[in-house]
Amino acid sequence: KPLMAGKKGIILGVANDKSIAWGIAKAASDAGAELAFTYQGEALERRVRPLAESVGSKFVLPCDVTDEASMDSVFETLNGAWGSLDFMVHAIAFSDKDELKGQYLQTTRSNFLRTMDISCYSLTALAQRAAPLMKDGGSIITLTYYGAERVMPHYNVMGVAKAALEASVRYLAADMGPSGIRVNAISAGPIKTLAASGIGDFRYILKWNELNSPLRRNVTIDEVGGAGLYFLSDLSSGVTGEVHHVDSGYHTVG
Ligand code: 0WD
C-alpha cells in the first residue's frame, strides 16, 4: 500500500510550480495522499488552482494568515468535508523586501512585527486550528533557513523570524506530542523561488552554496519534497521537534 494512502493534508504556501511547498505536495500526492491547497490573493489563485487540479485536489481555498476569520473558514471547510486531518505543510513567509538588503540594524518596528506575524506566529495560529482535526495524531512541518542559526547577508529580520519559528517548532512539539501530533522543520538550502527573489544578492548566495557545500550543488524542490514525505509519513513516527537540513550539507561547513 502506498506510503501516504488514506492520509489527508493541507498545503499552505504554494505560489507557483517553483514553490518549495509544491515540491512537497507532489511527493505527498505521488505517495497517495489527498491534498487541500490554500492561496493568498486572486493573482496566486490563478497559478495554484491548475497545480492543485493536476494532483486531483478538490480543495483550493483562500487563506491569509494575518486574518483569523480566513484561517477559521479553511479549517471549517476541511472539517465539513473530511472530518479529520493527518498533516499540514506551512511554507509561508513574508518581509518587506526593502529590509531584505543592507543591515538588520535598520529594521523598522512595523516590518519587524509583520515579518514575525506572517513568518512565525502563523504556524502557531494554524496549529491551533489543525489540532482538533488531528484526532488520530498528525504531522506538521514548516520551512526554515540557515539564516536562523548564523548571520547570512541580507536575510536580516527574516533570520530573526526563522529563529523564533524554529523555537516555536520545539514548543509546539512539546505541547502537541501527547496528542500524537509531531511538529518538525525542514531547513532548506537556497532555491530560486518567488519569495527568494526578494532577497538581496540571492544569486550570489546560490553560487556561494554551490561552490562551498559538501555536495557542491544546490538542492531542488523535489529533494525538499523527499524530506517532506519522510516527515509527513509514518517513516518518521519517532521524530518531533527536529530541524532537519536539506542543504547539500552547507550547515556543516558554513
Ligand atoms: O531559498 C528559499 N527559497 C528558501 C525558502 C530556503 C529556506 C526556506 N524557505 C522558506 C521560505 O521562507 C518560506 O517559509 O520556504 C517557505 C516557502 O517559500 P518559497 O517556496 O521559497 O516561496 P514562494 O513560492 O514565494 O511561497 C511563499 C508564499 C507566498 O508567496 P509570495 O511570493 O506571494 O510571498 O507564502 C505565501 C504566499 O503564497 N504567503 C502567505 N500566505 C498566506 N497569508 C502570506 C499570507 N499573509 N504571505 C505570504
Automatic annotation (TrEMBL):
Q: Where is the active site?
A: Y145, Y155
Q: What is its EC number?
A: 1.3.1.9
Q: Where NAD(+) is bound, by residue?
A: G13, S19, I20, Q40, D64, V65, I92, K162, I191, K192, T193, L194, A195
Q: Which Pfam families match?
A: adh_short_C2
Spell out the molecular function terms from Gene Ontology. Answer: enoyl-[acyl-carrier-protein] reductase (NADH) activity
Note the InterPro entries from the entry. Enoyl-ACP_Rdtase_NADH, NAD(P)-bd_dom_sf, SDR_fam
Write out the GO biological process terms: fatty acid biosynthetic process
Question: Which UniProt keywords are present, listed alphabetically?
Answer: Fatty acid biosynthesis, Fatty acid metabolism, Lipid biosynthesis, Lipid metabolism, NAD, Oxidoreductase
Pathway(s):
Lipid metabolism; fatty acid biosynthesis
Q: Which reaction does it catalyse?
A: a 2,3-saturated acyl-[ACP] + NAD(+) = a (2E)-enoyl-[ACP] + NADH + H(+)
Belongs to which family? Belongs to the short-chain dehydrogenases/reductases (SDR) family. FabI subfamily.
What PANTHER family does its record include?
ENOYL-[ACYL-CARRIER-PROTEIN] REDUCTASE, ENOYL-[ACYL-CARRIER-PROTEIN] REDUCTASE [NADH], CHLOROPLASTIC
This protein is called what?
Answer: Enoyl-[acyl-carrier-protein] reductase [NADH]
Species classification: Bacteria, Pseudomonadati, Pseudomonadota, Alphaproteobacteria, Rhodospirillales
